[in-house]
Amino acid sequence: MFNRVAEIVKRLNLDLEFISGGNCVDCSPVTGEQIASFPIYNAERIAGVIQRSKRAFAEWRLVAPKDRSELLRLFSEELRAAEDDLAQLISIETGKIHATALKEVRRSIKICDMVTDMQHRM
Fold first, then answer.
1. Where a domain ends, among 15, 37, 62?
2. What is the dihedral of CA 105, 109, 111, 112, to 10 degrees?
3. To bridge 38 with a disulfide, which of 22, 48, 60, 118 should be the other Cys (CB 3.0-4.6 Å)?
């Protein structure tokens, strides 16, 4: 099961570091097999993540609405291109059937599209 997840993560160009090498194990609710492991962060590492998030949010507030809309449109395209892989990951992690997981991904795409369209109406 881990190998299947690793293949999907590679296809999505994500870092395998985020699914392996930790002491916190994630198991399939269907089979009980290990699907990933994650490091448990200490307080210092968590504080660093929070600070980076605060800086990113401060920078995002400075991005013009038109530019935000374009970034969301591009993100929507990425989600659309990867919808099957994303649905597979959701299915593996949650035990949902593929069709239900795919609907979940497509709802996220629709939300991005809706927000993008809102910018054009302003």
1. 62
2. 140
3. 22
